[in-house]
Design brief:
The protein contains one helix and five strands; from the N terminus they run βββββα. The protein is mainly beta. It has one domain. A hairpin with a 5-residue loop joins strand 3 and strand 4. The radius of gyration is 13 Å and the shape is globular. The chain starts with a strand and ends in a 10-residue tail after the last helix. About 5% of the residues are buried.
């Protein structure tokens, strides 16, 4: 199994590629098939947090895409 990958999208969300394990507040575990991904909000405007709903586009949010 390959390792996880997190891509910082220019002026957009973090894209997290499977395989990875996500655990909710109740301890329930969720997995995705390898090669699938989820987009995590960076702008804070999503109505579906922690996931991105593309609200950054309508609000012309700008964010750094370089890893530091």
């Amino acid at each position: 199994m390959a390792g996880s990958k997190i891509e910082i999208r220019e002026n957009g969300p973090l894209r997290v590629y499977a395989p990875f394990e996500m655990v909710d507040k109740d301890g329930n575990t969720y997995t995705l098939p390898e090669g699938e991904f989820v987009s995590i909000c960076r702008c804070g405007m999503s109505q579906n947090k922690p996931f991105c709903d593309t609200a950054h586009r309508a609000n012309e949010w700008k964010g750094e895409s370089a890893a530091k």
